[in-house]
Every structure is written in structure tokens, then in C-alpha cells.
Automatic annotation (TrEMBL):
SMART domains: HTH_XRE. Residues 16-72 form the HTH cro/C1-type domain. Coiled coil: none annotated. It comes from the Bacteria. This is Transcriptional regulator. The lineage of its organism: Bacteria, Bacillati, Actinomycetota, Actinomycetes, Kitasatosporales.
């Protein structure tokens, strides 16, 4: 979290302070247990200081039985404390394989992957491309080449590898619960050519049958809708609703929204967009029909 948004640091500090209070320790007592000065506890709990991975582990150990396994897993994932193998190995929830790509991925992308790996659920609206978690290798390659023109092929390969490794969250135990609403334009835009697009559509039809995935299509017939302001993702986390976050992607940066008012506004927007979209079964039938015609 030392690289995360300031609001997230503050909210993480609030959760750590609540755990300390639940354990019955004063800040001074907690500081003595972990071998720190009391001011460090204060800086962390007020969000004025980032939290290193080893700091999180020490604090959670100090609070012992008052920390549930779910809270520990989430807070460790958010603070980048869980070490793990690269994409070729086990990519279970919270294992930070993406650090192997530090020289390739900007910090904001690593932050996004960290949130995705620790989240219980994700709600996303996409207007232009298939969400990364649902892309085929060839589609991911075509999108990467189009978005980052002129990139050397080895870097394209590495970025596609990262995109595919991210998809492990859908196969984890427990898996990420994904609710995605795709504008009909996503299905009709010929990214990578007819063959690549046909396989991508068939893949969407298959993945839509997974119990942890809800996939809906927003048809052209809806006309104007709230999603026209741009795509977004809402991440939600087990047991700590205050750490939910909305992510807005821009060409050169990502914006993290975490105020209660923002979360409520985007949550309501997603529900409205979802209500105007085709039901999941009708969406699957449309996707399969387009795949057959491709």
C-alpha cells in the first residue's frame, strides 16, 4: 500500500486501528509488542505512512485471534505481502506473481492487479473491448498491438502473458465473482480479424456458463445510457466494504475513487446499466449467434 492512493492508506489504517481496539491493546502496547515507536503506529493508523509488507504481518500477528483468516488474507494481499511464483506456477489468490514483471508493468497496473487478486468480486462495464479477464491469447495480442503500437514483439508477448496470468483469479478457490456488462460494440468490433474475433466470441459463450461469471450485453437498441461516460470496474472485498474501490482507466493513467459518495454513485450506475442489458441467457444466445456468423 506504500504506492497506493492516500485514501486507501487511510482506510487500511482505520481497519488496523479497529483490529487493535478489538484486541484491547493501546497504541503504545502494540508498538512495544512489534518493537516500534508509538508514533509509527499512529502514522500507519491515520494513513500518513505507507505500510510495508513485513509491517502488516507483524501487526496482524500482534492482534492474533482478533484477526479473521479472511481479514488477514485481504490485508496481506492489499499490502503486497504475499510472495508467490511466476505465471508458470501456482497463481492462487493473493500470490504476487506480477512482481516478476516490475521492469515491464507501470506501478498503476501492478496496483490494479493487486486489487483484482485480493477482491471478492468485480463489476465492470466495457464499451470497446472484451475485459482482460475474458480475453483469448490472440485477442489479447491484437488489443495490445493496437493500444501500444510499435512495441517490440517480446514485450507484446510478456504483456499478453501477464493478461492471461491475471485470469487465474477466475479459477482460484474461492474464485473472483465477475459481473460484466459489455456494450454490443464490443462484440462487433473486429479486433484481430474475423478468425480471432470468432474464437473470442466462442470463448465468451463458454466462460458465460461458469457459475462465478455473469455476462450481459447492452444492445444498441438501448440507445444512450449511463455507461457512455466511460468504462469502469468496481472491486469489492470480503468483510471490509469500506475498502471497495472504483477504477477508471485513462490513456496514460488510472483513477481510483474510494469516497462513499463515489462508490454509491457507481454502484447505482452499474445496477441501472445491468437492468437495461439483456439477461444472461439472452446475452449468451446473442454471443453464440455472432460467433456462428463470424
Amino acid at each position: 500500500m506504500q504506492h497506493g492512493p492516500a485514501v486507501r492508506r487511510r482506510k487500511l489504517g482505520e481497519e488496523l486501528r479497529a483490529l487493535r481496539d478489538r484486541s484491547g491493546l493501546t497504541s503504545g502496547e502494540a508498538a512495544r509488542i512489534v518493537g516500534w515507536h508509538q508514533s509509527k503506529i499512529s502514522r500507519i493508523e491515520t494513513g500518513r505512512s505507507g505500510v510495508k509488507p513485513e509491517d502488516i504481518r507483524l501487526l496482524l500477528d500482534a492482534y492474533g485471534e482478533f484477526v479473521s483468516p479472511e481479514q488477514r488474507a485481504l490485508l496481506e494481499a492489499l499490502s503486497a505481502s504475499a510472495a508467490g511464483p511466476g505465471p508458470g506456477g501456482d497463481t492462487g489468490r493473493g500470490r504476487q506473481w506480477w512482481h516478476d514483471y516490475r521492469g515491464l508493468l507501470p506501478q498503476e497496473y501492478r496496483d490494479f492487479i493487486s486489487l483484482e487478486a485480493g477482491a471478492r468480486s468485480a463489476r465492470t462495464v466495457e464499451l470497446s473491448v472484451v475485459p482482460g479477464l475474458l480475453q483469448t491469447p490472440d485477442y489479447a495480442r491484437a488489443v495490445t498491438r493496437a493500444a501500444l503500437g510499435g512495441l517490440p514483439e517480446p514485450k507484446v508477448d510478456a504483456l499478453v502473458e501477464v493478461r492471461l496470468a491475471r485470469q487465474s483469479v477466475l479459477r482460484a478457490d474461492p474464485p473472483l465473482e465477475l459481473s460484466a456488462v459489455l456494450d454490443e460494440a464490443v462484440l462487433r468490433r473486429q479486433i484481430g480479424g474475423p478468425g480471432v474475433m470468432a474464437e473470442q466470441l466462442r470463448h465468451l459463450a463458454r466462460v458465460a456458463r461458469l457459475p462465478q461469471v455473469s455476462l450481459q450485453v447492452l444492445p444498441f437498441s438501448v440507445g444512450g445510457h449511463l455507461g457512455l461516460t466511460g468504462p469502469f470496474v468496481i472491486f469489492s472485498f470480503t468483510n471490509i466494504a469500506d475498502l471497495d474501490v472504483v477504477v477508471l482507466d485513462h490513456l496514460t493513467s488510472s483513477l481510483y475513487l474510494e469516497r462513499k459518495e463515489d462508490l454509491e454513485a457507481y454502484g447505482a450506475a452499474f445496477r441501472t446499466i445491468q437492468a437495461h442489458a439483456l439477461p444472461p441467457q439472452d446475452s449468451s444466445e446473442l454471443i453464440s449467434s455472432l460467433a456462428d456468423d463470424a
